[in-house]
Design brief:
This protein has twelve helices and six strands. The longest helix is centred in the N-terminal third of the chain and has 15 residues, at 19-33. Strands 4-3-5-6 form a four-stranded parallel β-sheet, sandwiched between helices. Strands 1-2 form a two-stranded antiparallel sheet. It has 297 residues and is α/β, with parallel strands linked by helices.
C-alpha cells in the first residue's frame, strides 16, 4: 500500500478499501452474514485474484443455459463492494453472487438451507503476481514498488486483503470436511485452464444444469480470456466498477485492470529461485496439516 494508506482491520484481517468497508466494515460483513437466502442462489467464493470474473461468467452462462454474456459485470453482485447490498434482493433467481469474504462470514441462511457454493483455488504464487499488478493498476501501491517488496510487505504479511491466503483456504478446507450435503464444489483455476470442457461440465452438473456438449463448448469459447476481455471493453456495463471506486485516502484510486494475462505459471517470470524457495518454505509450514493439492505448474 502507499505510505499514506491506513489499513482497515476487521476480525483480525485487513479488508480491501471498498467504500462500504471503509465506512463500516463490521456493518457490511454482518449484512452479508444476514443476507436473505433465495431458492437456487449460488455463491462464488474466491480469495482475491483467483479468477472470480472468469468463473462468474461461466456460472452465469450455465445458469442461463446458453453462451450469452449478461450485460452486468460480476462487480454488480460483489457483496462486500457494492454501495447498497439491498440491490441484490430484487434480483430474479437463480442469483449468482460473489464474494471474497472467508467462510465464517458467508450468508448464514445460505449455509443452513444448503445453498450451493463454488469455491475456486488458485496457485498462491500466481495469485501474488496478479494481485501485484492489480494494486499497481489501481494506484494502491507506488509505481516503483518491486514485486519482491510487495510479496514480503503485503502478500505474505498482515496487510494482505482478506488476510492470509493460507488461512483463507484452510478455513474452506475445514468446512469441506463437514459438508455432508455436498454444497461446496471446489474447482482449481489451473484445472479449468487445462481441461475447460471437463471442468465446465462438472460445474454444470453441480449446478443441476443439463446442457449438450455443444452448449458446453460454446460457453468455454465465450469465456476464453481474449473474448472476455473483448466483452469487457465493448459490451459489459462497468458502471458498478466506477461506483465502488473511492477517492479517499487508502481507497481504490481508479478502476484496476481486470484482464491482464490470465495465465498459469506467470509467477516464474517474477519469482527468483531464492524467492520461490523462501515461499515454498513458508507454504510447507503454513499448510503442513492441509491436504490441499495446489497446482504450481
Amino acid at each position: 500500500m502507499k505510505e499514506s494508506d491506513e489499513r482497515i482491520v476487521f476480525d483480525g484481517m485487513t479488508v480491501p478499501p471498498f467504500a462500504p468497508l471503509k465506512k463500516n466494515a463490521k456493518e457490511r460483513f454482518e449484512e452479508i452474514r444476514n443476507l436473505e437466502y433465495k431458492e437456487d442462489d449460488v455463491i462464488l467464493t474466491t480469495f482475491p485474484k483467483s479468477g472470480t470474473n472468469w468463473f462468474w461468467e461461466i456460472i452465469c452462462m450455465l445458469l442461463k443455459g446458453k453462451a450469452e454474456y449478461v450485460k452486468e459485470a460480476k462487480v454488480s453482485v460483489f457483496l462486500e463492494a457494492i454501495p447498497d447490498l439491498n440491490v441484490v434482493h430484487g434480483l430474479a433467481s437463480p442469483r449468482a453472487l460473489n464474494t471474497h469474504v472467508p467462510y465464517r462470514w458467508l450468508p448464514k441462511q445460505h449455509l443452513e438451507r444448503n445453498g450451493k457454493i463454488v469455491h475456486v483455488i488458485r496457485n498462491p504464487k500466481d495469485v501474488a503476481v496478479s494481485m501485484y499488478y492489480h494494486f499497481k493498476s489501481s494506484g494502491n501501491i507506488n509505481d516503483d514498488c518491486h514485486f519482491k517488496t510487495f510479496l514480503e510487505q503485503i502478500f505474505l504479511s498482515a496487510a494482505c486483503p482478506m488476510g492470509s491466503w493460507f488461512d483463507y483456504e484452510k478455513e474452506f478446507e475445514q468446512a469441506k470436511t463437514t459438508d455432508k450435503d455436498h454444497i461446496i464444489l471446489t474447482v482449481h483455476y489451473e484445472s479449468m485452464k487445462k481441461n475447460p470442457i471437463e471442468e465446465t461440465r462438472r460445474l454444470g452438473k453441480f449446478l443441476n444444469v443439463e446442457l449438450s456438449d455443444q452448449q458446453i463448448a460454446d460457453i468455454v469459447d465465450k469465456c476464453s480470456f481474449q473474448k472476455l476481455r473483448h466483452a469487457a471493453e465493448t459490451f459489459k456495463d462497468l458502471s458498478h466498477r466506477e461506483k465502488i471506486t473511492d477517492t479517499g485516502e487508502g481507497a481504490i484510486r481508479k478502476p484496476p485492470n481486470i484482464y491482464r494475462k490470465g495465465e498459469i505459471g506467470d509467477w516464474k517470470n517474477h519469482f527468483t529461485v531464492a524467492m520461490s524457495e523462501h515461499f515454498d518454505t513458508i507454504f510447507r509450514e503454513k499448510m503442513k496439516d492441509s491436504n490441499i493439492q495446489v497446482q504450481f505448474e
